[in-house]
């Protein structure tokens, strides 16, 4: 696989062990009544074995579409993967036939979603759904598949799994359904798990249980996780590296500690500042980001964040900033797509409220 | 009674032993079981003028039903709701009308709570019609004033809800609530459907309006950080009851009830250094079902500090500034002799 030097991103070259997934300049668009919506506009990242990469962004930032595109799950039409590559084990997921993709989905790459009811078949028992996966991909006997299903349900913390096998999804609570979906996703021991807002619909105490469960399984099986979320609190707790997406592009990329200690893109700074905090002061207004994300059906000249940005200057109007390296604090290179250099300015003050709340 | 408002004046809103039970029947025609879901099971609180009471709890704990029962959107099974000392529970719709004007509501879903076939001007102006507050040109001027007040461009007067983003729609909902100049707004998860950056805009707007207009809020949310920011006092609900009620800073600095403690420890902190160090109390088990009757404390099954008494004897919330309904952690209860 040849790689043009200009597209090679310093984060990637840093990897000593080869990434198991490499996404390269991905573009995805949707045809709508309002025109062509360019949902993903050139996204590149990689994922290494055993690590957790978080993709953070607000609704419409393209974080989910990026992953759906990789899995061949963007509905066509209206969607279309315009260009780019997604290399998994040296093969491009984007040019594979449906047949080849089916061998990979579930077996090597599994997904879990925000709403377990969209992923579980309401007319099939949990046993049927769990054994379908292993029977299809691992060609085991029905008996073995059943034993494996019981084992998986036990692993995700469902009590008396042999009794619950015959139950239908509606007989489980929200948190338990999420566990069933995780059991399904992990039953073929995939190398990569894509978790799209896995805990957003759940209460915090249940959310804590699920995140703990994922971390535990990752440690035991060495699964790499791509975690798609809007919740920066969850990211801080579990991610190794973070990609911040805005209007279809990655605007900042760093390891988790660097990102939270010194965010370099005004959008990331704004996001962290707009979070109310368990320690925050009632008398101070939150540092809300004014305005709204741009309309992706219109062409975007320059920086997509400029209309909401305090640091904008002439150059931001017509030149889209590229991801460039920022102050190197050791470890992963820290990249941000911003013309302004914020390394010595208010990025640290904006984040000060959050780093002071040690207990 | 828990009169946490430390003054002698009549509280603006007073809720006493409010219960909302939903009877249900399940099973087949010949083998049916009757039961009752105790969505709200005896809660009491006061809200003073200019005050914000936050109600937090996980899904199904009855926090939204509480708000709905206060304005009779769901008829309460028993208990009393008073506005300025006047009891409104069980009032007829007509008698209730002047009180509805004083208590307004803002809903979670800005997509579902606005009529898609009405313009913004008509939506915000409708309460003025219902309560005969302004007509013709005056009404239009008032609507424009309200739009400006909540940060909506008055030029959008004739647009429809679908032309707005989530945050703007929530502003429309707030303008509609403000149209009748209420004393208190019941906010039911007003920001949880919004993205973080937009969420902060709406929180700032609500706090700004409170300053300007002297409003009181009942602020219902599951996000504890948001409630910490906006509320002066906080009530924590679990399975239809308030298990802890305190001033916001006291509750967050020193939670008494083991459930509050677990809840606070589970809130993700947006700081990797803190997240790596802190100890989470991970509860085992699921939120128990409100169709079961718990003679003791409903949290006992999941509680790390429970004693024998907790499963048989129900702890009531004592009337004091920082109160917890817990036999173990609340000094006021721990000293009382055990009896059934």
TrEMBL record, chain A:
Biased composition, class Basic and acidic residues, residue ranges: 11-20
Keyword field contains Repeat: no
Classification via InterPro entries: AAA+_ATPase, ABC_Ni/Peptide_Import, ABC_transporter-like_ATP-bd, ABC_transporter-like_CS, Oligopep_ABC_C, P-loop_NTPase
Family of this protein: Belongs to the ABC transporter superfamily.
SMART domains: AAA (SM00382)
KW Coiled coil (keyword) present: no
GO CC entries: plasma membrane
Annotated keywords: ATP-binding, Cell membrane, Membrane, Nucleotide-binding, Transport
GO biological process: peptide transport
GO molecular function term, any single one: ATP hydrolysis activity
UniProt-annotated location(s): Cell inner membrane
Lineage: Bacteria, Pseudomonadati, Planctomycetota, Planctomycetia, Pirellulales
Polar residues compositional bias, start-end: 1-10
Topology term for the membrane: Peripheral membrane protein
Main localization of the protein described in the UniProt heading: membrane
Name this polypeptide is given: Oligopeptide/dipeptide abc transporter, atpase subunit
Domain of life: Bacteria
Span of domain ABC transporter: 21-272
Protein source organism: Rhodopirellula sallentina SM41
Region Disordered, residue ranges: 1-20
TrEMBL record, chain B:
Entry keywords, A to Z: ATP-binding, Nucleotide-binding, Transport
Entries under InterPro entries matching the protein: AAA+_ATPase (IPR003593), ABC_transp_ATP-bind (IPR050319), ABC_transporter-like_ATP-bd (IPR003439), ABC_transporter-like_CS (IPR017871), Oligopep_ABC_C (IPR013563), P-loop_NTPase (IPR027417)
Stored Pfam families: ABC_tran (PF00005), oligo_HPY (PF08352)
Stretches that traverse the bilayer: none
PROSITE patterns associated with the record: ABC_TRANSPORTER_1, ABC_TRANSPORTER_2
One Gene Ontology term of the molecular function aspect: ATP hydrolysis activity
Boundaries of every ABC transporter domain copy: 24-264
CDD domains per UniProt: ABC_NikE_OppD_transporters
GO BP terms, alphabetized: peptide transport; transmembrane transport
Claim: Nucleotide-binding is one of the keywords in the record: yes
Upper classification of the organism: Bacteria, Pseudomonadati, Planctomycetota, Planctomycetia, Pirellulales
Keyword Repressor on entry: no
NCBIfam families in UniProt: oligo_HPY
Protein known as: Oligopeptide/dipeptide ABC transporter, ATPase subunit
UniProt record similarity statement: Belongs to the ABC transporter superfamily.
Source organism superkingdom: Bacteria
């Amino acid at each position: 696989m040849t790689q043009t030097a200009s597209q090679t991103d310093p984060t990637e070259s840093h990897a000593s062990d080869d990434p198991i997934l490499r996404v390269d300049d991905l573009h995805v668009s949707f045809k709508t009544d309002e025109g062509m919506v360019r949902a993903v506009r050139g996204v590149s990242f990689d994922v290494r074995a055993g690590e957790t990469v978080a993709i953070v962004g607000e609704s419409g930032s393209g974080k989910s579409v990026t992953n759906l595109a990789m899995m061949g799950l963007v509905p066509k039409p209206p969607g279309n993967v315009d260009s780019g590559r997604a290399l998994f084990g040296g093969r491009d997921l984007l040019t594979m036939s449906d047949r080849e993709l089916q061998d990979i989905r579930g077996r090597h790459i599994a997904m879990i979603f925000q709403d377990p009811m969209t992923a579980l078949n309401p007319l099939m028992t949990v046993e049927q759904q769990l054994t379908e996966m292993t029977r299809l991909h691992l060609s085991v006997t029905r008996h073995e598949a059943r034993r494996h299903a019981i084992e998986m349900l036990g692993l995700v913390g469902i009590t008396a799994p042999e009794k619950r096998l015959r139950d239908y999804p509606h007989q489980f609570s929200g948190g338990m359904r999420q566990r069933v979906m995780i059991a399904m996703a992990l039953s073929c021991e995939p190398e990569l798990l894509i978790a799209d807002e896995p805990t957003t619909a759940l209460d915090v105490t249940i959310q804590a249980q699920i995140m703990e469960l994922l971390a535990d399984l990752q440690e035991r099986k060495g699964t790499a996780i791509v975690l798609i979320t809007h919740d920066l609190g969850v990211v801080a707790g579990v991610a190794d590296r973070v990609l911040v997406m805005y209007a279809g592009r990655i605007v900042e990329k760093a390891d988790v500690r660097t990102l939270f200690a010194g965010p370099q893109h005004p959008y990331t700074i704004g996001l962290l500042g707009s979070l109310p905090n368990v320690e925050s002061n009632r008398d101070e207004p939150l540092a809300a980001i004014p305005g709204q994300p741009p309309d992706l059906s219109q062409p975007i000249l320059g920086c997509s964040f400029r209309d909401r940005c305090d640091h904008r200057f002439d150059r931001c109007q017509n030149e889209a900033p590229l991801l460039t390296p920022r102050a190197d604090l050791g470890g992963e290179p820290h990249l941000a797509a911003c013309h302004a250099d914020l390394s010595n300015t208010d990025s640290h003050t904006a984040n000060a409220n959050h780093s002071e709340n040690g207990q | 009674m828990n009169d946490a408002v430390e003054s002698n004046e009549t509280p603006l809103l007073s809720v006493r032993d409010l219960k909302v039970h939903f009877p249900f029947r399940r099973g087949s025609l010949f083998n049916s079981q009757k039961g009752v879901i105790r969505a709200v099971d005896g809660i009491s609180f006061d809200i003073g003028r200019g005050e914000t009471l936050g109600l937090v709890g996980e899904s199904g704990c009855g926090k939204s039903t509480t708000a709905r029962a206060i304005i009779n959107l769901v008829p309460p099974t028993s208990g009393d709701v008073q506005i300025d000392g006047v009891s409104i529970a069980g009032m007829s719709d007509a008698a209730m009308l002047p009180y509805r004007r004083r208590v307004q509501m803002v809903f979670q879903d800005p997509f579902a709570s606005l009529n898609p076939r009405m313009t913004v001007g008509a939506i915000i102006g409708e309460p003025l019609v219902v309560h005969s507050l302004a007509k013709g040109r005056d009404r239009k001027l008032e609507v424009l004033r309200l739009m400006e007040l909540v940060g909506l461009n008055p030029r959008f007067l004739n647009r429809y809800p679908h032309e707005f983003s989530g945050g703007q729609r929530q502003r429309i909902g707030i303008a509609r609530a403000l149209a009748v100049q209420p004393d208190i707004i019941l906010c039911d998860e007003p920001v949880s459907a919004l993205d973080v950056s937009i969420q902060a805009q709406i929180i700032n707007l609500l706090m700004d309006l409170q300053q300007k207009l002297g409003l009181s809020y009942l602020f219902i949310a599951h996000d504890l950080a948001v409630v910490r920011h906006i509320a002066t006092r906080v009530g924590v609900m679990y399975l239809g009851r308030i298990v802890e009620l305190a001033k916001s800073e006291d509750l967050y600095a020193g939670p008494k009830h083991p459930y509050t403690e677990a809840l606070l420890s589970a809130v993700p902190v947006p700081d990797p250094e803190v997240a790596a160090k802190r100890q989470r109390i991970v509860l085992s088990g699921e939120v128990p079902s409100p169709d079961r009757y718990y003679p003791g404390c409903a949290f006992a099954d999941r509680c790390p500090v429970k004693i024998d008494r907790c499963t048989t004897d129900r702890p009531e919330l004592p009337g004091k500034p920082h109160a917890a309904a817990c036999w173990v952690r609340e000094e006021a209860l721990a000293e009382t002799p055990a009896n059934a």
